[in-house]
From TrEMBL:
<feature type="domain" description="tRNA pseudouridylate synthase B C-terminal">
    <location>
        <begin position="178"/>
        <end position="220"/>
    </location>
</feature>
<comment type="similarity">
    <text>Belongs to the pseudouridine synthase TruB family. Type 1 subfamily.</text>
</comment>
<feature type="domain" description="Pseudouridine synthase II N-terminal">
    <location>
        <begin position="25"/>
        <end position="177"/>
    </location>
</feature>
<dbReference type="GO" id="GO:0160148">
    <property type="term" value="F:tRNA pseudouridine(55) synthase activity"/>
</dbReference>
<dbReference type="InterPro" id="IPR015947">
    <property type="entry name" value="PUA-like_sf"/>
</dbReference>
<feature type="domain" description="tRNA pseudouridine synthase II TruB subfamily 2 C-terminal">
    <location>
        <begin position="233"/>
        <end position="288"/>
    </location>
</feature>
<dbReference type="GO" id="GO:0003723">
    <property type="term" value="F:RNA binding"/>
</dbReference>
<keyword id="KW-0819">tRNA processing</keyword>
<protein>
    <recommendedName>
        <fullName>tRNA pseudouridine synthase B</fullName>
        <ecNumber>5.4.99.25</ecNumber>
    </recommendedName>
</protein>
<feature type="active site" description="Nucleophile">
    <location>
        <position position="40"/>
    </location>
</feature>
<dbReference type="InterPro" id="IPR032819">
    <property type="entry name" value="TruB_C"/>
</dbReference>
<dbReference type="InterPro" id="IPR036974">
    <property type="entry name" value="PUA_sf"/>
</dbReference>
<dbReference type="InterPro" id="IPR002501">
    <property type="entry name" value="PsdUridine_synth_N"/>
</dbReference>
<dbReference type="InterPro" id="IPR014780">
    <property type="entry name" value="tRNA_psdUridine_synth_TruB"/>
</dbReference>
<dbReference type="GO" id="GO:1990481">
    <property type="term" value="P:mRNA pseudouridine synthesis"/>
</dbReference>
<dbReference type="Pfam" id="PF16198">
    <property type="entry name" value="TruB_C_2"/>
</dbReference>
<dbReference type="Pfam" id="PF01509">
    <property type="entry name" value="TruB_N"/>
</dbReference>
Amino acid sequence: MAESGLIIVDKPGEWTSHDVVARMRRLAGTRRVGHAGTLDPMATGVLVVGVEKATRLLGHLTLTEKVYEATIRLGVTTNTDDAEGEITATASASGVAAEEIRKGVEALTGAIMQVPPQVSAIKVNGQRAYKMARAGEEVELAARPVTVRAFDVLDVRAHDDVVDVDAVVTCSSGTYIRSLARDLGAALGVGGHLTRLRRTRVGPYDLSLARTIDELAERCVILPIGEAVAAAFPRRDVTAEEARVIGHGGRLAAAGLGEGPIGVFGPDGTLLALMEEQGRTARPLAVFV
């Protein structure tokens, strides 16, 4: 059986997240592989892949904070809000001042309501939005609450009638950087879309841990499941008796470690479970022993 843990992949452009999972199945020698948080084919960077028991962590890791490097082009609108779509409108952005861009970015920072791109994986009446959009159907997607913790502009470059904005975005799960590009362009009255996206961090896992497909083909580096959990979640060490209770799916008294998943480890340092505190008790989310 393959080792349970995470593979932190530096996804190349033009690959889908499913392509990466298929390749990791071959390299890890198991079908039990999944990923935490899709990256569009155009995007590169950190894709967290779970192997064997670590696939049970992925739903929780998907909810963690993410960081992206992005380039937004002002003056051109596309039907996908990124460079892979068809141009639907153009307007000269040569008159857009840096101060206007700064104010537009500030308005998109913090807790905001965001409408996802029409070409997204969100389900509408049981169908993926992107499939409906590509079939020519008009897709109505409701705005959703997201948090943009930081939206830092690094550079503004004007050429011809377009302006390129390089930025770093730190955001909550569910935030679409394509939508930020679209909404910034709309607020400035010239339209906008995303031309480059690189994810540099998912929770605690950043590019320093990531390996390219070629590097992984030479040596498939798997971060052991215990180390992966200790890096991502608060840690609780329990006694042998508490470990026995957890092994039977039982609950423990809460330890006051707050909301969200907690990694629980036995006396010998072995990962036992992910647990969640509710009031005075801690209930198991996933048991690994």
